Amino acid sequence: MTDASELIDERIRELGGWRAETFSEVRRIIKEADPEIVEEWKWMKPSSHGTPVWSRSGGICTGETYTHVVKLTFHKGASLADPAGLFNSSLGGRVRRAIDIREGEKVDEMALKDLVRRAVALNLEQGQSRRRR
Q1: Which of 44, 80, 97, 111 maximizes the CB count within 10 A of its CB?
Q2: Range of the domain at 91
Q3: Chain centre to alpha carbon of residue 11
Q4: CA-CA distances (angstroms) from residue 133 to 10, 57, 121, 129?
């Protein structure tokens, strides 16, 4: 069985070009934001090879690549403060919010790390409140 990190490495190699560079960059930023974040590979089915997921005490975000964007979808994005305004997609959803990164766009590393840390804190807080019940 191949582990999730190896599958993500493989996806990056397959992509090549700007999408591989961007995906590698956001992956590094996410992992640096919190070293306890775990890489997972979920939702494999005949029509899909699966999706990279970063988690800590619950899902943080997924990473997907399309022809014109690299997309990070935050599981609980609607509950996260986003002072830098990184969320630019799925803004009408009640739970999720996404960041679409297009070719040539620079990722705001500090803002993305902050957003990831906020998502981790929310997961940890919600986990604590469930245990108190």
Answers
A1: 97
A2: 4-132
A3: 15
A4: 42, 17, 19, 7
